[in-house]
């Protein structure tokens, strides 16, 4: 097949758009979608100046999504002194997995000349995920512990580095899966939180004083296209799956979405278009932004924002250290 733009050999066919694209036009189309998302979500505020630049912390795991996001952000803002990037890698303590992906992060940030920070569960919490899985004091899946610890460190370090935004590499498939899971679980508060946490433009989301605001500039790009971009651009992405990956329900949803997308191209895009609108309504109607019941206080142990006396991370650490 030939590229629909220039007639050269196509490297991909997007069934949802009907387009065949060659390498150059495919790479350009991915970058264009990310830049459009940055514009539409108002990521760069009007008052950002070279004298008063924005600091964006990017969660860099070394997997394809975060590597592609970091690379495109670098290319987009290389000549723009209003934006300064800090790549943040979290080492969970998973043998035979995270060391290799940290190497990929170091290689990428060295090559691009981006500031790179590495934090570990061991230094921060005196735990390693391999031990947590073995002890499992709460009888939960590995990712349920790991997600709490990771979110805590991303927030803590984004604040420590005075970040204006915290960016993560969630792609279209990730977001469509989360949307569908929230629907199927019937959890409207979760839909509202999803919107406030990372969907919609910053103008729509309003002031967010308690957290460094998050954004997902890769959320219009399907997973397969992220992988193809990483391959074509020869980026040092680490592709092995975590040995503790345990989100079985998400796996089922992923399979379901693959099938739907195969039979009805464009399903993921239409899910997200409708979901974002509904999530916006849920966020304003459900009161996720309201003060009152959901008013945040500080964890009495670590000072993190929480609605409880002791935050979830501190109570999980107590259970783990008690074993
Ligand atoms: Fe942690 Fe689960 Fe991700 Fe592994 S797959 S790094 S356990 S969240």
Automatic annotation (TrEMBL):
Annotated coiled-coil segments of the chain: none
Binding site residues for Zn(2+) 1: 3, 6, 22, 25
One example GO MF annotation: transferase activity
Signal peptide: none
Residue ranges occupied by any 2-thiouridine synthetase TtuA-like N-terminal LIM domain in the UniProt entry: 3-27
Binding site for Zn(2+) 2: 299, 302, 311, 314
Keywords per UniProt: ATP-binding, Metal-binding, Nucleotide-binding, Transferase, Zinc
Pfam families the record matches: ATP_bind_3, TtuA_LIM_N
Domain of life according to the entry: Archaea
Residues of the tRNA(Ile)-lysidine/2-thiocytidine synthase N-terminal domain: 56-190
Keyword Iron-sulfur: no
Gene3D superfamilies on file: HUPs
Record-listed ATP binding positions: 59-61, 65, 90, 169, 174
CDD domains attached to this UniProt entry: CTU1-like (cd01713)
Keyword Coiled coil: no
UniProt name for this protein: TIGR00269 family protein
